[in-house]
Design goal:
Number of strands of chain B: 10
CATH architecture of the largest domain in chain A: Orthogonal Bundle
Structural class of chain B: alpha/beta
Largest sheet of chain A: 2 strands, antiparallel
Largest interface: A-B, 31 and 46 residues
Distance between the termini of chain A: 59 Å
Radius of gyration of chain B: 19 Å
Helix content of chain A: over 70%
Number of domains of chain A: 2
CATH topology of the largest domain in chain A: ABC transporter involved in vitamin B12 uptake, BtuC
Number of domains of chain B: 2
CATH architecture of the largest domain in chain B: 3-Layer(aba) Sandwich
Number of strands of chain A: 2
CATH class of the largest domain in chain A: Mainly Alpha
Largest sheet of chain B: 6 strands, mixed
CATH topology of the largest domain in chain B: Rossmann fold
Oligomer: heterodimer
Helix content of chain B: 25-40%
Order of helices and strands of chain B: EEEHEEHEHHHHEHEHEEHH
Number of helices of chain A: 16
Distance between the termini of chain B: 50 Å
Shape of chain A: globular
Chain lengths: ~400, ~260
């Protein structure tokens, strides 16, 4: 068995060496008109392929054994869940995280704090999209539109009317939620791929309007000099402001987690999940499809709008280039990578996807390559995401 | 007992040029079990889809009449969720559970249209919402016990054995507090033991005064359960009566077995 696998591995690596031979081994110098034969590269290729092959085989083997033993696949990656279910471990975990979050800006540079703030913004964006995609099962590829609506709400109101951050924060959320309903109405009948295409179009429409309607949004040159968030009339310097924004973001993340957690364990949350599972059965059980979908769309958009306001206040400058389709794709990747419908998963997914590129700047040329590679690996090994959602089981004590 | 609860008159449904239902009349009285039978393709499931709002019938009237004095309600043209809200709950021929929700949650979904907590309630959980949630939980668990699925409460609906999935569909429909329960081939694909258990379950539900209208192919089950039987063929009602009458009806025998050929 093992011998046969090694043999197959050797053959596979030989095949890969053959396939990659022209690009990996041969190097032509057109000026000198000579050819370099880089034989050592072929060797690396062979060893590398062989190791990857064995690893994949080993992983598969282990997975098969687990299923044979009747073991639950979910258990492999759910140590975080088990920790969260144990009240003591949960308390320790949360307090450690809280301490780290509190002291972070005092131990790291403002650059690091800024990066962290950005990551936290994506956490909230991911949690917002998670309501739409993870819970209600509506694939939304234009989520960034609501983010843009929030950001431009603050930028424009601040520029024209001098409204402050705190006034616009809820307003931005509400306006984005209204846009969510506006998008929701025409797409109520659509599901899956069709819905994805329409939402994709919606995202692009918003961006193109912002880009081309110069009198309204100042076009591609964007809006600058947006006020930073204040604290009861106190204005901060640049450095303090970064720390302050960081703490605001932490607060927003906590509020979001709290609200999303409560929502998914409520009557509406159950209706969303039922809608994701089976639309017809859902209606037959008396759930209003239209209302439930619209609520999901608008609540998801609400968080995106809030983060949009935060974003505008943090960077003090916005232009349509910040709201391209790539942003939507990243937010969606966060949800899918982290685990659809799982709050912990989305938080971890956002931190990984946003922080990794920042700290691996040395490899920045390969960023997209690595991104694609990670997603492909995820699809093969953990299609349910890093942390899959575990449905809450209800405890019921019978009254005697 | 004898007051009608559902009254369907002249129900007609056209799909393009095909008349799937041709002015079908049907009524179900309070507390009774009525069976709708007929060969494959007779239009039984179309009939269900029409009265539950999944299809919009071309013609005819559908009225639901609650026994407690309130006026009769027309169900024609309502959406499926509104029909359920009015008091008509159904199960599906090919099981349509929510596979990635627990058994208990599946039943809790049935309580959706009888409760009303919304965004505010979900986020802030005022005492009224908490009480409502506790109520949902208690009622749902009670229904699970009634259909004998309480031991599976925390299992995913997906993982249940086939017969139990069918019973869960019934439990979920019961959770909506229907005036009339519609069962679409509840015994399809069941083995004799499961069918027997189903027979017992339906009888038990019926004894509590629940009116039931069922489509079924298993004649033994139909004859054992039904108070009255309606027979359909090619979209038309061809007979109605008690099980004994139906068994003796030549039209029914013809529809099922074909005509005798004079040779």
């Amino acid at each position: 068995m093992v011998l046969r696998e090694i043999k197959k591995g050797l053959l596979t690596s030989l095949w890969f060496v053959f396939l990659t031979f022209p690009i990996v081994v041969i190097k032509v110098d057109p000026i000198e008109k000579t050819i370099f034969w880089r034989w050592q590269n072929a060797l690396y290729m062979a060893i590398g392929t062989f190791c990857v092959y064995l690893l994949v085989k080993y992983y598969r083997h282990r997975k098969e054994q687990q299923t044979d033993n009747g073991g639950n696949l979910e258990q492999t990656g759910s140590f975080i869940h088990r920790a969260l279910q144990n009240p003591l471990q949960r308390k320790i975990l949360i307090s450690v995280l809280a301490v780290i979050a509190l002291i972070f800006p005092h131990f790291f540079s403002t650059y690091q704090t800024n990066v962290m703030t950005t990551a936290l913004m994506y956490v909230v964006l991911g949690l917002g999209l998670n309501i739409v995609v993870g819970l209600a099962g509506l694939l939304d590829l234009g989520f960034v539109a609501f983010y843009a609506v929030g950001a431009y709400t603050y930028a424009l109101l601040n520029m024209h009317f001098g409204l402050g951050f705190w006034t616009v924060l809820p307003l931005g959320g509400l306006i984005a939620a209204t846009f969510g309903i506006l998008l929701g109405f025409p797409v109520l009948r659509l599901r899956g791929d069709y819905l994805a295409i329409v939402t994709l179009g919606f995202g692009e429409i918003i961006r193109l309007i912002l880009e081309n309607w110069g009198e309204f949004s100042q076009g591609p040159s964007g809006i600058s000099n947006i006020s930073r968030p204040g604290f009861f009339g106190i204005e901060f310097g640049l450095e303090q402001s970064i720390v302050y924004t960081y703490y605001l973001m932490i607060l927003l993340v906590i509020v979001t987690i709290f609200v999303v957690n409560r929502l998914q364990d409520s009557r509406i949350g159950r209706a969303w999940i039922a809608l994701r599972e089976d639309e017809i059965a859902c209606q037959a059980m008396g759930i209003d499809k239209r209302k439930t979908k619209l609520v999901a769309f608008s609540l998801g958009a609400f968080w995106a709008g809030i983060v949009g306001v935060m974003f505008a206040a943090k960077t003090t400058f916005i232009n349509p280039a910040s709201f391209t389709f790539l942003e939507s794709a990243i937010i969606l990747s966060i949800v899918v990578l982290g685990g659809m419908g799982s709050i912990v998963g989305v938080v971890i997914g956002a931190l990984i996807l946003i922080l990794m590129p920042e700290y691996l700047r040395a490899l920045s040329e390969y960023r997209m390559l690595a991104f694609g590679g990670i997603l492909v690996c995820m699809m093969i090994f953990r299609p349910q995401g890093l942390i899959s959602n575990v449905r809450r089981t209800y405890k019921f004590e019978k009254k005697q | 007992m004898n007051q009608p609860i559902l009254n369907v008159t002249g129900l007609t449904m056209d799909f393009g040029g095909i008349r799937a239902l041709d002015s079908v009349d049907l009524d179900v009285r309070n507390g009774e079990i009525v069976a709708l039978i007929g060969p494959n393709g007779a239009g039984k499931t179309t009939f269900f889809n029409c009265i539950t709002g999944i299809y919009r019938p071309t013609g005819g009237d559908i009225f639901l009449m609650p026994p407690q004095g309130s006026k009769k309600m027309s169900l024609k043209g309502l959406k499926p969720n509104q029909v359920t809200e009015k008091g008509l709950a159904r199960t599906f021929q090919n099981i349509r559970l929510f596979p990635k929700m627990t058994v208990l949650e599946n039943v809790m979904i049935g309580r959706h249209c009888r409760t009303k907590a919304f965004i505010f309630g979900a986020i802030f959980r005022p005492p009224s919402t908490r009480k409502e949630e506790a109520g949902i939980l208690e009622t749902s668990y009670g229904i699970l016990e009634k259909v004998g699925l309480a031991k599976y409460a925390d299992e995913f609906a997906d993982n249940l054995p086939y017969g139990a999935q069918r019973r869960l569909e019934i439990a979920r429909a019961l959770a909506t507090e229907p005036l009339l329960l519609l069962l679409d081939e509840p015994a399809a694909g069941m083995n004799p033991q499961e069918t027997f258990a189903l027979d017992q379950l339906i009888k038990r539900i019926s004894e509590e005064g629940q009116a039931i209208l069922l489509i079924e192919h298993d004649m033994q089950l139909v004859m054992s359960l039904s108070d009255r039987i309606f027979v359909m063929d090619y979209g038309k009602k061809i007979a109605q009566g008690t099980p004994a009458e139906i068994r003796a009806n030549p039209k029914v025998i013809k529809a099922y077995l074909g005509e005798e050929v004079d040779a």
